Amino acid sequence: MRYLILLIILAALPKIATAQTAKTTQLLTQGWRFHQADKEGWMSSTVPGCVHTDLLAAGQIKDPLYRDNELQQQWIGKADWDYETTFAVTPEMLRRSYLELVFKGLDTYADVTLNDATILHADNMFREWRVSVKPQLRAGENHLRIHFRSPLTEVAGLPAKYGFPLYATNDEQAMAVVGDKGPVLSPYTRKAPYQYGWDWGPRFVTAGIWQPVQLEVWDEARISDFHVVQRSLSDDVAQLGFVVEYDGGTAVQNPAATLLIEALGPDGKPAGPRLEQAVTLQPNRHELAVQMRLDKPQRWFPAGYGAQALYTFTARLVQGGKPLDTAKKRIGLRTLELRRERDQYGKSFEFVVNGIPVFAKGANWIPADIFPTRVTNQRYRHLLQSARDCNMNMVRVWGGGIYENDYFYDTCDELGLLVWQDFMFACTFYPGNPEFMDNVRQEATHQVRRLRDHPSLAIWVGNNENEVAWQDWNIPSIIGAAHQKEVWGDYLRMFNDVLPAVLRAHDPSRLYWPSSPSANYEDLASRQSNGDMHYWAVWAGTEPLTAYEKQVPRFMSEYGFQSFPELKSVQQFAAPADYDIASPVMREHQRSQAGNPRLLEYLRRDFREPKDFSSFLYVSQVLQAHAIKIAAEHLRRNRPRVMGSMYWQLDDCWGAASWSSIDYYGRWKALQYYAKRFYADVLLSPHEEGDNVRFYVVSDRLAAVPARLQVRLLDFTGHLLFEQTQALQIELLTSKAYLDISRKKLLKGHNPKQVVLSCAVQAADGTTLAANTHYFAAPKEMMMPRPGITTTWKPLTDSTYQLTLQSQTLARDVNMTLAEGDGFFEDNYFDLLPGQPKTVTFRSPSPTSAAQLKQQLRLQSLADAF
């Protein structure tokens, strides 16, 4: 009888637990160790992480990014690696209905065993893997092992299998690059291409557990997805739909449950009605749909156009008054479309948010570290806040990197940075076999469902430059006639069928664009009139900087120019013996073989020879900033024909010569400071056209502004040679030339090599809305005196100061830095006009004194560099 009673009690336990116990999640990030497969000697590991960072922490390798250490570390990518840990499972946990291991990200070819039983074979860095493991678990300690196979070994036989001569035929060739167009390993493996051979990054092949691992334990149901659908939006009401997807496992013991939906407004207070709906749980996956009406909704706007109002919605599955599972989503309410309408120029390409045509001002985003798990939330915040602080409203997540983590997109939501999101395909052509296509489908489904509720997400784009590669890079002839139809057919299946089908199923509200650049297969002969454009004839094609002004696309999604980081940053990856761009170490940190000669060629066109290495670094940054300024101002002047400027690139992944405006160590280059000015909401842009100078004012403001335009010509000692003022009404959301002055009238016979044109737009209250300078000769032709700059420090707090600079002669591109330590100047690389003081705010990371700052301050201008 006692035995029978015990059986009855044990049989009832799962049902009792189901009614009272919520899903629990146990993070498995502790106690990991690793070693090279088939070798002795286990070492501690950090999860999430990768084998390179683990080897570095264990003292087995030197810093891969220092000097040329990476050259001695190529063996790492050719080896297999084992990771293992143990974790405890209690008898109570084993009595629960479902126990699942969830691998948020494995890089990349992984064989997973649990207590010596094989549970998973993974082959995609960008997918989440979920495995039911209750049969393999036991009470007490459980042993989890992950064996990572080398991607180089894994793909070695695939080129022969697919038969395309474009691709590599062995592991050595798999590390090579086809021309300058990208790594040939990328077609075969769903792995971040930038990590193993792009022409601007280190050539590492990583492996490891790059996202968290966790054990999820649940009973009747778990919420597998929570999606908020904005059905309609007006100033009076928002109609929302909530789709709660749940997994009911293989059987449901207690089907009766309740779905609760609660909303918090941007102020953190309850918003809208509390929804409660009775549901009947069923086995397997099912969707529950609920609707909500929000009165007087607050909208989310891109940066510069309004506030970033964010609502938080919580969904709960409840039984017996206690939750089975909970999910949260934070969203912004806005309308967004990509308007493409026929006009006199071709077909428009403009993002319209809440009815406002937004000129996209921004930069391309690459992964911020060659090892992505080293990118902290603080670093993400610094980089994205820097973009926002420089008046950007969009970043393009480039298709040769990674789908960024949740914190990245959450931060973009908070800062009002629209996200142009490429799928992770770049510069090559991919296999079309069913297994590969299905793998991509699973990847895209996971990423789309993960990201679709972010208000910042503006567009999904199939790939980076694959379409233009087919048209312009001679790819068809490289592939050969026998395979051209097959390769192009695979391309169309991937980017016209598979990815669009995923979006139709999971994110139908957003536009899909097949490639960047593309005209969506319309007007392929004209990239000026339709779609988006990448332009590299300046830099890669060595066209003059003025060639930027011959390009008038509908949207410029990529263009760029290279520079080196400043000396403080170079000191972090090189030794003093390396301080020459011709040194082996500096050449290693210049991935493009043509990079240094090309940079020197451009520099010598407009500048004199820098006097030393430090001056060369400085001038390279000024050159880069000048180049992108020419392009960005030109694109903005041509609004509304052009509605986007996205230079390449915001950040850098490893510390080197690059196209970034912020270097790997977080320091703003000259370009970042320039961007703050040429992306301002009001831009004054003087431009020589024929015999005249035209003064354009570009406004991104939502209201007209009465103002006054002042134009002054000065010599280098401050003598006023010409002055003219004009009242104007700055029109909203437009670019317009408000004044023309003939060059002859401006110069009045004065030497164009010895004058500066200073212009400003002031509001009615005297506030300067925009200012700019213009020169009539290249810097190397100008006879600039060496300025004697005086400085005054005024404390605001113990770590914040105002620095006032003044010079009796012109000082171009004044750069301020500290001899030791770091701080942040809110403005830098500016022209200091003679006799006109300039005040800049400086923030120190720690308390300091004016005397210390005065001693540490180092100033440099163009006249000092030669």
Automatic annotation (TrEMBL):
Pfam families per UniProt: Glyco_hydro_2, Glyco_hydro_2_N2, Ig_mannosidase, Mannosidase_ig
Enzyme class (EC, first level): hydrolase
Mannosidase Ig/CBM-like domain ranges (all copies): 692-781
Signal sequence range: 1-19
Location of the Glycoside hydrolase family 2 immunoglobulin-like beta-sandwich domain: 221-334
Subcellular localization(s) per the UniProt record: Secreted
Recorded superkingdom: Bacteria
GO molecular function, one term: hydrolase activity
Every Beta-mannosidase-like galactose-binding domain range: 32-211
Enzyme Commission number(s): 3.2.1.25
Parts of the chain that traverse the membrane: none
Catalytic activity: Hydrolysis of terminal, non-reducing beta-D-mannose residues in beta-D-mannosides
Start and end residues of each Beta-mannosidase Ig-fold domain: 785-864
Keyword Hydrolase: yes
Pathway(s) served: Glycan metabolism; N-glycan degradation
Keywords: Glycoprotein, Glycosidase, Hydrolase, Secreted, Signal
Stated family: Belongs to the glycosyl hydrolase 2 family. Beta-mannosidase B subfamily.
Oligomer and partners: Homodimer.
Designated name of the protein: Beta-mannosidase B
Lineage: Bacteria, Pseudomonadati, Bacteroidota, Cytophagia, Cytophagales
